[in-house]
Design a protein that fits this description.
This protein is α+β, with helices and mostly antiparallel strands and about 350 residues long. It folds into 2 domains: about 180 residues, Ribosomal Protein S5, domain 2 (2-Layer Sandwich); about 160 residues, GHMP kinase, C-terminal domain (Alpha-Beta Plaits), CATH 3.30.70. It is about 40% helix and about 25% strand. Helix 3 crosses helix 5, helix 6 crosses helix 7 and helix 7 runs antiparallel to helix 8. It is globular, with a radius of gyration of 20 Å. The structure holds alpha-D-galactopyranose. The site of alpha-D-galactopyranose has 10 residues, from helix 5.
Length: about 350
């Protein structure tokens, strides 16, 4: 299938945006904290043209599904909600958006915690910016994308995914202060590369569990009389909170500290230890891991050449990320996947991409 076949004319422009994998700093962004994602090679591409019948038409190649927006007061569901949301937030920002034909194709896996939705939002906004020559910068693109996700896709997310998709590349880590949006592009720890394996376990409970964790963090911040948990730097301060707020807050405070240590420029070995500690904290204090992720992480952590491994993204299923010795990614990923599948699961190697290395 292609744009021409669906819309009977060629596209006028196209733009892409990548998915992301977060290396450290999980569940810190909605606490005004620090994150350290990088882009993955998989991306989403949006092709655009003007529609002549006064209605928006969206087509997803992956789903082979077309959604026609005949009533623009009614938010569609599924992939169309993200595109619809992007158009609406642009209109709310004061831009006039003509009726569009939108064709989407993506290699970012859905439901693995690698931000397929942010990739769709950012590529849509980039394509519309290009088509209509809108004076919007890349940080504004991320902010508009986050707004679309919160108000039209209904997820109370932080800003990490959209900032990573809009500003990160696959060769660097993006250190981001989610309160000030100050950021720094950093090299990977020396002699290391990343491996990403999908656990094959869908992220059930992800949105209810996510929103619950978020409100627990807000309650902890209120009790500690700070604006956000980012304002606590000494983890001992949270010890008097009632459970589960104590453990939730302890995860956030220690996780922020792990990110800050990592960006001071540590060895690959130390970076790996920080990732292992992050996983333990997400499993025991934040309680967003599931048995499959713990098994996959443990297999990775025990594999020679692995500096460290952890679940990545919101948790409750999805993918794991490992920092491994440079040049060994493919072999380590194959080995870990085989052991994981022998334990009765069906995982999938996402990075390095098949055909790489
Ligand atoms: C999801 C959200 C992000 C972030 C992560 C957890 O990916 O969209 O904003 O909160 O979970 O770190």
């Amino acid at each position: 299938m292609n744009f021409q076949k669906i819309f009977d004319k060629p596209p006028e422009t196209e733009a892409s945006a990548p998915g992301r994998v977060n290396l450290l700093g999980e569940h810190t962004d909605y606490n005004d904290g620090f994150v350290l994602p990088t882009a993955i090679p998989q991306s989403t591409t949006v092709q655009l043209g003007l529609s002549t019948d006064g209605h928006h038409h969206f087509y997803s190649e992956n789903l082979d599904e077309q959604v026609d927006i005949l009533d623009s007061n009614h938010t569609p569901s599924g992939f169309a909600s993200y595109i619809f949301g992007c158009i609406h937030v642009l209109e709310q920002a004061g831009y006039t958006i003509s009726s569009l034909n939108v064709y989407v194709t993506s290699s970012v896996p859905m439901g693995s915690g690698l931000s397929s939705s942010a990739a769709l939002e950012v590529s849509t906004l980039r394509a519309v910016r290009q088509l209509l020559n809108l004076p919007i910068n890349d940080v504004e693109i991320a902010q508009l994308a986050q707004k679309a996700e919160i108000h039209y896709a209904g997820v109370q997310c932080g800003i990490m995914d959209q900032m990573a998709s809009s500003l990160a590349d696959t060769e660097h880590m993006l250190f981001l202060d989610t309160r000030t949006l100050e950021r720094r592009v950093l090299p990977f720890p020396s002699g290391a590369e990343i491996v990403v394996i999908d656990s094959g376990v869908p992220r059930t409970l992800a949105s209810s569990g996510y929103n619950q964790r978020r409100s627990e963090c807000e309650a902890a911040a209120r009790s500690l009389e700070v604006k956000a948990l980012r304002d606590i730097t000494d983890a001992r301060i949270v010890e008097d909170l009632p459970e589960p707020l104590r453990r939730r807050a302890r995860h956030v405070v220690t996780e922020d500290n792990r990110v800050l240590e990592a960006v001071r420029g540590v060895s690959s070995e130390r970076f790996g230890e920080l990732m292992n500690a992050s996983h333990a904290s997400l499993r025991d204090d934040y309680e967003v891991s599931v048995p499959a992720l713990d098994i996959l992480v443990e297999i990775l952590q025990k594999t020679a050449g692995v500096f460290g491994a952890r679940l990545t993204g919101a948790g409750f299923g999805g993918a794991c990320v490992a920092l491994v010795a440079a040049g060994k990614g493919r072999a380590i990923a194959n080995h870990a996947l085989e052991a994981y599948n022998q334990a009765g699961y069906t995982g999938q190697i996402l990075v390095p991409e098949t055909g790489d290395k």
